[in-house]
Amino acid sequence: MKQEQVIYENHFSLHHINKYASLMALGNGYLGVRAAHEEDYAEQTRGMYAAGFFNKASQNEPSELVNLPDMAGMRIEIEGEIFSLLNGEILSYKRILNLVNGELKREVLWKNKAGARFSLVFQRFVAKNNLHLLASKLTVTSLDRKAKLKIVTGINAQQTNFGKQHLIEEKLRVFEEEVMQGVYKTTQSGHIVALAASCSFPVESDFSFAAKNRQLQLTINHELTLNTPFVLEKIGTVFTSLDQGEAGKDPEAASVNELRKYTSCGYDVLLGMSALYWNKFWKEKRVKITSGHDFDQVAMDFALYHLEIMTPAHDERFSVGAKGLTGEGYKGHVFWDTEIFIAPFHLFTKPETAKKLLRYRYMHLKQAQEKAAQNGYQGALFPWESALSGEEETPEFAAINIRTGTRQKVASALAEHHIVADIAYAVVQYYQATLDEEFMKEEGLALLKETCRFWISRAEEDGEKLSIKDVIGPDEYTEHVDNNAYTNYMAHYNVEQALYFMNKYGDSDQLLADEGRQFLARLYLPQPNENKIIPQDDTFLSKPEIDLSVYKQKQGSQAILLDYSRQEVNDMQILKQADVVMLLYLLPELFQNEVAAKNLHYYEEHTIHDSSLSKAIHAIVAARCGDIDAAYRFFQEACLIDLGPNPHSSDEGIHAASLGALWLTAIFGFANISWKDNHLSLNPKLPANWSELAFPLHWQGVRLEMVLTHQHIVITNPSKQDLMVKINGVEYRLSEKIEVALEGEDNANCHRTDSFKKV
Prior knowledge:
Layout: E1 6-9, H1 17-23, E2 26-27, E3 31-33, E4 48-50, E5 54-55, E6 64-65, E7 74-78, E8 81-82, E9 89-98, E10 103-111, E11 117-126, E12 133-142, E13 147-156, E14 167-175, E15 179-186, E16 192-200, E17 206-212, E18 215-224, E19 230-240, H2 245-249, H3 251-262, H4 267-285, E20 288-291, H5 295-310, H6 337-347, H7 351-363, H8 365-374, E21 397-400, E22 407-409, H9 412-415, H10 418-434, H11 437-458, E23 460-462, E24 465-467, H12 485-504, H13 510-522, H14 549-552, H15 560-563, H16 566-570, H17 579-586, H18 593-605, H19 614-624, H20 628-643, H21 656-670, E25 673-676, E26 679-682, E27 690-699, E28 702-708, E29 712-716, E30 723-727, E31 730-734, E32 737-743, E33 749-752, E34 757-758
Parallel strand pairs: 26-30
Antiparallel strand pairs: 1-9, 2-3, 3-4, 5-6, 7-8, 7-13, 9-10, 10-11, 11-12, 12-19, 13-18, 14-15, 15-16, 16-19, 17-18, 20-27, 21-22, 23-24, 25-26, 27-28, 28-29, 29-32, 30-31, 31-34, 32-33
């Protein structure tokens, strides 16, 4: 890998402390650990989370992803002075998240109040080869004189979810003056989590153990000599009662037994073992961008790293939260983000993981059916926000209006029903990319039938047509509207695909088939008007417009809500994200290119992009419409959602879906991958600034390696299994390798080389 795969922080700032704690988080899909500093700061939010480990603070509140006891924290005293970057003098500071091996490293040269200099190097990682293992290393060197060093570390259960305590302390133990263990139980869900830790340090150091105020602590005292490094290594394990097999039955024993397997290995050996698995990941899944702007590759690497560490590929009972495992934003809940923005990365790089994410929905089909029945519908109505139970977790009320004292009701769970069709879309996309008949005959068909049944019951008689009324589309600035274009078209697609697969597999539910055909024939689908604009809903185009330029400059901040109430925003042509543009991305064959281009332009003018999902989708549609400069601009702006200069943009965790959307932009926008009739198609739209785009793609059991430039396309098929591929409209049979030279500025024509066969 020629280009360095790192995320830098070159100076310490309290304003950025929680942003970088999210950006530089470590994880493996089972565990997520925020990159909080070892030493404490009042503004800092520590966090360690285990996938699926939820609890309710009280009966009337939604479940939260529990902030587990902390094992990364350290209290460091040098010559009686507590080490803090707010005291003394910072002579140099550098922190690096190495994406290649998943290690976080911080190097500080610090001068204390007495004028003595000390080098402190902090290292840590969460193992990729072992779901339960994490490790840290501290190296302290005195550069001017002898000095007394004191370190306190251990297992700190004072952690809360923004003040809410979810864990009861069950047991604290120290085994053989070496292994610390804390065992805790959630207050409502009854889950058990067991943490164990062991430290190694110079034999001449004095040490002691103590337990106080929900903290199990090891205190180490050491005499630093000049230029002689003091090294402390800490190895930890985490197990929960949700784990599979014997470990889940007895996490208490598992945490200690697993720890003892690795304590003799040492930090560097364990890091090397983990790094091998990271190397395999990058070799198999990296998207390589050769660009005049190096940041493009950095942003893509950052996105892929987080997509990997946020996804619980080990267990189909869990899914991906809107902040991954990097923070407590949205309480760790699962949204439509997973199926539409995150699952495709896995589907086209490791389909088994995408299948598990769909299995999560299938396993909670019963809860979705119960929610539909409770709301007066048939079929399955999946929750807008989901957790471990599969039940609706959306809070009933949002923040309090501090001027009126009233709470604003959250309408998403009541009306944002497009998630039903989004899940159905992901089911069909999974089948198209894998041809997994076994899954589709059982789980896939069941999901399609029950979501189909929901839409049939959800539609209302409206003259000669059926309408879907009182909904919220992806654009959450436009609430309680009728015939939202995105919702109606996606519902139509949902029912259409359900009938197709019912017929394919000879399903005998004739009543559902008949009702489905009537639904398809009668459902109102908004058509382009005389200006070729597709109405977002029945009333949107008749609403007044205002100048949004000032709010576009503050995108992502919801600044418009400081000047207008939500009702006022709802009554104007103001979009958080554009539903019609989202529809054009998911179902590109619905409308001609000219219609798509006009709608992209119209709705972008009315979009503030306050949603982190917005920019990348605009980039994809712009690329497909041939406006590659605009597409590239949107892409770069999407890259800045987490990595941009806003000091608080990611305080409560990274934006998981927007990172998935960066991958979508490269693959479905600039490479312009699509498929029809089981044939994979490419019609590249590379930015002028990119000289090459290379990426792997799994398609129907075959792993392809693609290299695209402005001059040629090379597709390698290591399996040598025959595959039909369409490039810029020309069909080829790919058995081992295709090399296609491109002609013309629009890359509209291809001419053959000797390494492929044209059909």
